[in-house]
């Protein structure tokens, strides 16, 4: 996802096959996006659909630009990310035979509490998901925007998010007992989300749902979604 604030763009997470994703967006989306727009990136957790593209982004930007991408996450998550990438990227094209570290590819920025981004702040909250995952609250002073990241249904997180004017919350439609496991332990079912008050539902857009959640018209989902709306792929949501 891209957050655009008066022209400043912050990307949230980076799934694998970025060129394929952007090609699809540029064919079907409302606005074109090129890979050189990745200048600031916030990471939520280590699942591949959220960080699988960081390595390709690293190599792309290393060979294409002198300006490293700013990579934001709590310090422990930056460490986890480099642990994951290290074996693929430590031996590199430095040229002097030395080993590369994360800051050779990115400008890693460990998030402080109420991190000052210059013009707005960002708070973090650990969600009910594994591996450890971070939700984000963007505070623009007169407007707050909450982003659940991946999470099981968690009333503490809901309360933390409810301070926001607009919320994006993940949601799982369909059966939750699948493949011998219970998806409720790490994702939020629509049944649980529908127990929340109408005021919360009206300011919340659901995302991270499966492709079969609607057929042609996202305004007509294949499920009862109460007063929620769906966040739609390749479309722009105006927050203000
Ligand atoms: Zn996940």
Describe this structure in words.
- With 240 residues, the protein is α/β, with parallel strands linked by helices.
- The chain has two domains: 1-111, 4-Layer Sandwich (Metallo-beta-lactamase, Chain A); 113-240, Ribonuclease Z/Hydroxyacylglutathione hydrolase-like (Metallo-beta-lactamase, Chain A), CATH 3.60.15.
- 25% of the residues lie in helices and 23% in strands.
- The chain has eight helices and 14 strands.
- It has helices spanning 18-28, 48-51, 54-64, 75-89, 102-105, 155-161, 190-193, 198-202, and strands at 2-5, 8-12, 40-42, 69-73, 106-110, 115-116, 121-126, 134-139, 144-147, 166-170, 177-178, 181-182, 204-207, 229-230.
- The strands form three sheets. Strands 6-7-8-9-10-13-14 form a seven-stranded mixed β-sheet. A five-stranded mixed β-sheet has the order 1-2-3-4-5.
- Strand 2 (8-12), helix 1 (18-28) and strand 3 (40-42) form a beta-alpha-beta unit.
- The longest helix is centred in the middle third of the chain and has 15 residues, at 75-89.
- The protein is globular.
- The two termini are 17 Å apart.
- 26% of the residues are buried.
- The mean pLDDT is 93.
- Bound molecules: zinc ion.
- Zinc ion binds next to loops.
